[in-house]
């Protein structure tokens, strides 16, 4: 991502490019990016919903999306389709509006869809300009917003939406610092685990195919062995790990947000019933938040 600013004009601009592979054919991914009922399922950062979503995907057609954050605040975006070449390319000019309907940010988003052996390589190029000074900080969250939205799109395409548990936190530290806490065998035992738990590290080999093995020691003295394999390792950006028994996939993403780190922990279970049972029986969401509380304490930084 590159960002430039012109303080004399009291405007700021940002540009980014993101590429993501989806295990779905181009036609399916293209429909998910243009049909209103599909867009509403994934548009927006983690934790946001889209109660209003309209789309007329043709040159000159318009789109309107109202995103709602977890606190209930609405954010309206309008757009115009400039190019629509199904299932290959979209160019959309969009505007982010304030509560009174004033334009805060104007952006041009170019999305290309390339077939890769039955999968889809989606490439986003976004160029945005803040039209008022108070909108300039919003550009700092553009990459995190796109990255999290595309992860939500992947959840929709793979059917993981109903089988997953998601916990997010914003840390007042750089991605490199937060990532190191997850991948340093000396740091991880210092904080990882719910309140009252301790950890004995057995093996940490942070590479694709490498193992992560440790034992949790519960407050009552019960031991809980954990065996993972690293499926994906992108330094300071993304970790994907498969847990052996019970089987589930944990994905940790580290997104830059105005110099801070937006961390998202996503756990995808084999079935929705396994997800529900885990949340109910072991208070998984509460324990996950306790773990992130301990991470903030370990780093000595604030979190929200």
Verbal overview:
- There is one protein chain.
- This protein is 24% helix and 45% strand.
- The protein has seven helices and 15 strands.
- The chain has helices at residues 26-34, 36-42, 142-158, 175-183, 188-191, 272-281, 284-299; strands at 2-6, 11-22, 49-55, 62-68, 74-85, 89-97, 103-116, 119-130, 164-171, 198-204, 211-217, 223-234, 238-243, 248-257, 260-269.
- The strands form two sheets. Strands 1-2-8-7-6-5-4-3 form an eight-stranded antiparallel sheet, with helices on one face. A seven-stranded antiparallel sheet has the order 9-15-14-13-12-11-10, sandwiched between helices.
- Strand 10 (198-204) and strand 11 (211-217) form a beta hairpin.
- It starts with a strand and ends in a 5-residue tail after the last helix.
- Mean pLDDT is 93; it is low at 1-9.
Cα separation of the termini = 24 Å
Judged by helices, strands and strand pairing, the structural class is alpha+beta
Helix content: 10-25%
Q: Please count the beta strands (DSSP E, at least 2 residues each).
A: 15
Low-confidence region ranges:
1-9
Main-sheet strand order equals: 1-2-8-7-6-5-4-3
Proportion of beta-strand residues: over 45%
Strand-and-helix sequence, N→C? Answer: EEHHEEEEEEHEHHEEEEEEHH
Radius of gyration, whole Å? 21 Å
Shape: globular
Largest sheet: 8 strands, antiparallel
Summed up, the helix count is 7
What average pLDDT do the residues reach?
Answer: 93
């Amino acid at each position: 991502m590159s960002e430039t600013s012109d303080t004399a004009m009291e405007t700021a601009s940002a540009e980014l490019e993101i590429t993501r592979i989806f295990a779905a054919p181009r036609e399916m991914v293209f429909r998910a990016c243009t049909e209103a009922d599909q867009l509403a399922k994934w548009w927006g950062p983690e934790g946001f919903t889209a109660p209003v979503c309209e789309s007329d995907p043709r040159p000159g057609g318009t789109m309107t999306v109202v995103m709602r954050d977890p606190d209930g605040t609405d954010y309206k975006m309008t757009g115009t389709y400039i190019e629509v070449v199904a299932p290959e390319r979209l160019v959309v000019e969009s505007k982010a509006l304030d509560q009174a309907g004033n334009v805060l940010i104007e952006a041009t988003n170019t999305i290309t869809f390339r077939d890769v052996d039955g999968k889809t390589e989606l490439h986003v190029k976004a160029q945005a300009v803040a039209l008022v000074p108070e909108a300039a900080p919003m550009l700092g969250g553009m990459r995190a917003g796109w990255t999290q939205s595309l992860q939500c799109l992947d959840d929709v395409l793979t059917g993981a939406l109903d089988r997953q548990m998601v916990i997010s936190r914003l840390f007042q530290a750089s991605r490199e610092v937060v990532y190191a806490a997850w991948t340093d065998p000396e740091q991880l035992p210092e904080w990882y685990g719910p309140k009252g738990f301790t950890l004995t590290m057995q093996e940490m080999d942070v590479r694709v195919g490498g193992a992560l093995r440790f034992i949790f020691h519960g407050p009552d003295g019960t031991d809980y062995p954990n065996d993972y394999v690293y499926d994906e390792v992108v330094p300071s950006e993304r970790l994907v790990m498969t847990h052996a028994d019970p089987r589930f996939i944990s994905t940790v993403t580290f997104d830059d947000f105005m110099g801070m780190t937006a961390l998202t922990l996503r756990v995808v279970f084999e079935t929705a019933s396994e997800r529900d049972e885990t949340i109910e029986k072991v208070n998984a969401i509460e324990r996950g938040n306790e773990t992130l509380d301990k991470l903030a304490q370990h780093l000595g930084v604030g979190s929200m």
